[in-house]
Specification:
single chain; 86 residues; mainly alpha
Length: 86
Amino acid sequence: MTEHESLQMFLNRAHQVIDLATEQNDLYNKQEPQVDETAYSSAQQQLQQTYIDLQKVSASATPQQREEIQRVMAQILKLQNDMIID
């Protein structure tokens, strides 16, 4: 597997975590009865771990890859803030 393919798989995983956390945050905001506090907390933890992993990957990325990584990191930060504020 090339470095580019590896990075792309990692970014795909990051987007999956973002989607999961967004879904949990939406449920929480709607005060749905099916809100699982454990799943919500797990989504927050996964976001944090993904952010840390992206920081590590960014160090060895090309400038173009770093820009893409930074966009994903910004999405994670925004979602983390939304989850904390809500």
